Amino acid sequence: MKDLYKNCRLCPRECGVDRLNGEIGFCGKTAELSLARAALHMWEEPCISGEEGSGTVFFSGCCLRCVYCQNREIAIGDSGKIVSPQRLEEIFFELQAQGANNINLVTPTHYLPHIVSALRSAKNNGLKIPVVYNTGGYEKAESLRLLDGLVDIYLPDFKYFSAELGKTLSFASDYTDHAMSSLAEMVRQVGKPVFDDRGMMKKGVIVRHLVLPEQVEDSKKVLKYLYETYGNDIFISIMSQYTPLEAMKDHPYLSRKLTDAEYDEVVDHAVDLGIENGFLQDGEAAEESFIPPFDNSGV
Fold it and tell me: Nearest-CA neighbor of 159 among 149, 169, 144?
């Protein structure tokens, strides 16, 4: 499976470089597995974090280049420690021993061959907690099929409905097309939501949508598509946590926080559509303190 790093086409960028022999892909990384943090995380949706926390593993690099990225330090590949797939498997068991409700793989797709290998071995060796695949939504359905039977919960973003927004904010005019096709594959794999008696999700899909300043109408289109396509077979997490970082200080609309009125309008639209399976977020989430330190903790 490591050969997939040669002429790499794991993500929609399909940059075709030989990452196995040290070339750097659009993701900013070679085939060497690089992690920036592995620790319990308390700030996911309630059915993911619970009281004990979600066992998050943050991978270095990303196939998107969102101009407002909250995790830019790792997204561009500047942070992280090289580890082996065997060490990745050990980390899964360490997080399980710490009481994690799940293993939460954050921005993982550019390392799919390593991840598939580590998950197969871990499940064979006694990993019991669910596996969460936490992604920006810019995926190839073909690549996701490699995870069939290994992932229990998909946690993708659905950032935009507008191709123009995908182009200007993430340098991916085809973002929405891939978000649609990959979401269909995710739902096919894991089916309808399943919870345990504590209310923790065991299987299912939660789609996250971050409401951006001045993009209320696009957010409404995203919610309409999701609900009309999947109804209550998925959960929708409507997020208000957009944080204007220093790099956005001169942007025409991303230089400010989302207003309560903008967020409330999107939430009201969700109610009007009939969305019941969802999560909301209060304004306190729009703080940089909610961004964890990418200091190689737990790696």
Answer: 169
Q: What share of the chain is helix, strand, coil (3-state, %, to 5)?
A: 40, 15, 45
Question: How far apart, in Å, are the Cα atoms of 25 and each of 30, 145, 196?
Answer: 7, 21, 40
Residue 165 makes CB contacts below 8 A (sequence gap 6+) with 159, 215, 218
Banded pLDDT at 225 (limits 50, 70, 90): very high
Tell me how far apart the alpha carbons of residues 21 and 64 are, in angstroms, rounded to a whole number: 23
Widest distance between CA atoms in the chain: 53
Query: Cα(299)–Cα(183) distance, rounded to whole angstroms?
Result: 30
**pLDDT tens sequence across 19-58:** 999 999 999 999 999 999 999 999 999 999 999 999 999 9
Q: Smallest Cα–Cα separation from 44: which of 239, 294, 259, 243?
A: 239
Are residues 187 and 240 in contact, defined by beta-carbon separation less than 8 angstroms? no
Model confidence at 167: pLDDT above 70? yes
> Higher-confidence residue: 75 or 187?
187
In the chain the beta strands, taken as DSSP E runs, fall at: 34-41, 54-59, 81-82, 103-106, 131-135, 153-156, 194-195, 201-210, 235-239, 278-279
Taking the CA atoms of residue 104, residue 204, residue 166 and residue 30 in that order, the dihedral angle to the nearest 10 degrees is: 40
User: What's the CA gap between 229 and 206, in Å, rounded?
Assistant: 14
Residue showing tokens 């009201």 = 268
pLDDT surpasses 60 at 287: no
What is residue 23's three-state secondary structure?
coil
Q: Name, in order, each residue with C-beta under 8 angstroms of 286's C-beta and a sequence gap of 6 or more.
A: 240, 241, 242, 243, 257, 258
Residue 222: name the closest of 171, 269, 261 by CA. 269
